[in-house]
Every structure is written in structure tokens, then in C-alpha cells.
Design a protein that fits this description.
Layout (H helix, E strand, L loop, with lengths): L2 E5 L5 E4 L6 E2 L5 E4 L6 E4 L5 E4 L5 E3 L22 H16 L3 H4 L5 H20 L1
Antiparallel strand pairs: 1-2, 1-6, 3-4, 4-5, 6-7
């Protein structure tokens, strides 16, 4: 299918021929891009945007807004790990470091490793202060 569209306001017919061929109608209401690699389109008001198929038929587009889930709604409550669980995680982390070969023990750690350790320690300390 060709990447073609028509503006209802100015009756311009647009066609994008290649990937970076960004085309806008005369009045600036609609635009298309992408050639046949991808069909990207833009409209100030979608009522003014018509898709044109290979036979020249005008197709009214239907825009569906994505369903937005509220960030404040929690489907399930995740239980907090117990003090023993947190201490077990810390012991497991220490044990895994102790099993490393000497050359690995002497190598610098990444910021990600260090951050993971701090998060675990923070969780343990918060848990101790709550109980």
C-alpha cells in the first residue's frame, strides 16, 4: 500500500515515497512520513485526515486512544519481606562475593552492584526500625 493521505481542508493529496520523506499539506493540517517502510501520520484534527488507498479510494481513519491505567491503583498488594528474608538476602550476597576468584574480588564493582547493595541494606535498616 502506498503511503498517501488527503487533507479535507485544502484538498491536498500527499504521498511519502521513502523513509525520510516527510510531507505536509498546503495548509499545514496533516502530514505523513515513512514511505513504504512505515506509515507515520500527524493531524491537528483527525477529522481532516483521510487515507488514500492504491485505487484512489478515500478511507476515513479511526483513532483509538490507548487505555491509560492509573498509576495510583495497585492491583495486588505485594507483601514486604520479613527481617529474616532480608538478612538471608544479605547473607546470600556476601556468600556469592566470597565465592568469586581472587582476580574478580580485586576488580572494581559497577555502580549497579553498589546500588543493589545499598538498596538491600536500606531495606534491612528500614525493617529493623519498623519492628
Amino acid at each position: 500500500m502506498k503511503n498517501r493521505a488527503k487533507c479535507r481542508l485544502c484538498n491536498s493529496i500527499l504521498e511519502s515515497f521513502h523513509c525520510h520523506d516527510y510531507v505536509t499539506c498546503k495548509c499545514g493540517e496533516i502530514s505523513i512520513d515513512g514511505g513504504q517502510e512505515y506509515l507515520r501520520c500527524k493531524a491537528n484534527d483527525w477529522k481532516n485526515f483521510l487515507r488514500i488507498d492504491d485505487e484512489g479510494n478515500e478511507i476515513i481513519v479511526t483513532i483509538k486512544e490507548p487505555e491509560v491505567k492509573s498509576e495510583n491503583v495497585i492491583d495486588e498488594e505485594i507483601p514486604l519481606p520479613s527481617r529474616d528474608d532480608l538478612l538471608s538476602m544479605l547473607d546470600e550476597m556476601i556468600s556469592s562475593y566470597e565465592r568469586l576468584p581472587m582476580h574478580a574480588l580485586l576488580a572494581p564493582i559497577s555502580n549497579s552492584d553498589f546500588c543493589s547493595s545499598l538498596i538491600l541494606l536500606s531495606s534491612i535498616l528500614r525493617r529493623f526500625t519498623k519492628d
